[in-house]
């Protein structure tokens, strides 16, 4: 049997917490009875600097319910950081941790399947959404577009997987080696590379409270995801520079022909040619500088360069 931790970041979730605790307690107890989780298993609620009564509620549930643990962050640091705080605490206390949202939008009836796959030897189990019917058309299109863009830019992300996943102790230890501050967990986890599998589920609607991810946060999250995992936008500048420089050659020919046909104002040819050529060269130079910045950026992250999975002696 293994110690299983559920890790739930909570930001202003007083409206959903009582129900969440009730449903998860029932689920965890049934997993304990069926031998999937041992008696040290817990639900770890991470209060991400909420402004409402979230922490008071967590304290109250902790005093009444031995399965509830709590972690209080001093400030609101955002979902990803709150999640990381919870996972890094679980790393020392549990054999595996499952992260999920406090609003129970992620279907909790599949929790046993995660642990089953863990016991079968997987280090990471991704929860993947079957379909996105409960989302608005806008959220669905932007979210799916985002996964596609990430893929094109060369970052490895699991399609339609958010942060509903199980990680083993060893995977959490690997995660702790990634020191980057611009945290985009769903991009880092696939880099860990241990054996992984998928569990499929339908996402429900939030049953109380409102989304803490308005469009502005969604956009900045997407930007973080792209700029934390890809230097391709920098390469794009260099390519654009080459393209503009090539166009300038065509422009040069056109300007020269116009000049010799005599239908130009004096001085026009020289100005037009230099604008295009210089523009192209400048952009190309920016791209070259960008290449170096891209290298610095990768060095600064100091990500682990390899991970040994097995060693036969
Ligand atoms: N959350 C958090 N800190 C924040 C914003 C959100 O810990 O600054 C938590 C929130 O309490 C919830 C989870 O992150 O448990 C997902 O947020 P939400 O349900 O609002 O996002 P959505 O499901 O609408 O994408
Ligand atoms: Mg939600």
From TrEMBL:
<keyword id="KW-1133">Transmembrane helix</keyword>
<keyword id="KW-0328">Glycosyltransferase</keyword>
<feature type="transmembrane region" description="Helical">
    <location>
        <begin position="269"/>
        <end position="293"/>
    </location>
</feature>
<keyword id="KW-0808">Transferase</keyword>
<keyword id="KW-0812">Transmembrane</keyword>
<dbReference type="GO" id="GO:0005886">
    <property type="term" value="C:plasma membrane"/>
</dbReference>
<feature type="domain" description="Glycosyltransferase 2-like">
    <location>
        <begin position="6"/>
        <end position="174"/>
    </location>
</feature>
<keyword id="KW-0472">Membrane</keyword>
<dbReference type="Pfam" id="PF00535">
    <property type="entry name" value="Glycos_transf_2"/>
</dbReference>
<dbReference type="InterPro" id="IPR050256">
    <property type="entry name" value="Glycosyltransferase_2"/>
</dbReference>
<feature type="transmembrane region" description="Helical">
    <location>
        <begin position="236"/>
        <end position="257"/>
    </location>
</feature>
<dbReference type="GO" id="GO:0016757">
    <property type="term" value="F:glycosyltransferase activity"/>
</dbReference>
<protein>
    <submittedName>
        <fullName>Glycosyltransferase family 2 protein</fullName>
        <ecNumber>2.4.-.-</ecNumber>
    </submittedName>
</protein>
<dbReference type="InterPro" id="IPR001173">
    <property type="entry name" value="Glyco_trans_2-like"/>
</dbReference>
<dbReference type="InterPro" id="IPR029044">
    <property type="entry name" value="Nucleotide-diphossugar_trans"/>
</dbReference>
